[in-house]
Specification:
Largest sheet: 5 strands, mixed
Shape: globular
Radius of gyration: 18 Å
Bound molecules: FE2/S2 (inorganic) cluster
CATH class of the largest domain: Alpha Beta
Number of helices: 7
Order of helices and strands: EEHEEEHHEEHEEHHEH
Number of domains: 2
Number of strands: 10
């Protein structure tokens, strides 16, 4: 397989051809923030938190394949501010009450907010009225926290490939629901995986709340973006 070289903020990064900008960055120890992207899932480029700039054009690093000689801008102040504004929009669009959330300390949105030092969003809070759903025997769906990354839709399927999580409705009423009949077939392992794959606290496993105390969770120990040198997926 041929090898390519790109630069990210002036730093030369080598990689086999055919990898995305995000993958090249990750294997070279360069951090690009992501939310909808997840290891082993086909990227869909929906959140745009990974936006980088190449020759003046903005593109999603998780979907754009790197081409030999590309000069990628990743940490320009305006790019970082664009990412910050996306995160702020996600916060005001839902109801993210971190202190009472089971995922606090394991939440990628919260961890990115810390990384980007978000104190007060520049946009007005929407305070949408959304219900919590307990229709699945093993799961709670907390729609107030959902950022519609579709990671659950893409990753949780039955053995014969049917999707358990499905987008429902349109526009601002869109939500990620479950097929109640298929949700009844969820195994304990699938329910746990659904909770893990969710970057926020929108999918919660019933009966195991706060199993790991706040303060001892993933991002309590290692802030997001500081693990890239180890080649970890996220
Ligand atoms: Fe690339 Fe969401 S991580 S668009």
């Amino acid at each position: 397989m041929s090898e390519i070289t790109i630069t990210i903020d002036g730093r030369a990064c080598k990689s086999p051809a055919g990898r995305t900008i995000f993958e090249v960055a990750r294997t070279n120890g360069v951090y690009i923030p992501t939310l909808c992207n997840y290891k082993d899932l086909r990227p869909v480029g929906s959140c745009r938190v990974c936006t980088v700039r190449v020759a003046g054009r903005y593109m999603a690093a998780c979907t754009q394949v790197a081409i030999d000689g590309m000069a990628v801008e990743n940490t320009a102040p305006d790019l970082e501010d664009m990412r910050r504004s996306i995160l702020e929009m996600l916060f005001v669009e839902g109801n993210h009450l971190c202190p009472s959330c089971e995922k606090s300390g394991n939440c990628e949105l919260q961890a990115l907010a810390y990384r980007y030092q978000i104190m007060v969003p520049r946009f007005p809070f929407q305070f949408p009225v959304r219900r919590v759903e307990a229709v699945a025997p093993k799961l709670l769906l907390e729609h107030n926290r959902c950022i519609q990354c579709l990671r659950c839709v893409r990753s949780i399927q039955t053995e014969d490939g049917r999707r358990i999580f499905v987008p429902q409705n349109r526009s601002r009423w869109r939500k990620i629901g479950v097929d109640p009949r298929l949700a009844a077939e969820l195994t304990d392992e699938m329910a746990l995986k659904a909770m893990e794959v969710c970057p926020v606290g929108s999918i919660l496993r019933k009966g195991v709340g706060f199993a790991v105390p706040i303060g001892r969770r993933k991002f309590d120990k290692t802030p997001i973006g500081t693990d890239v040198a180890e080649g970890l997926p996220r």
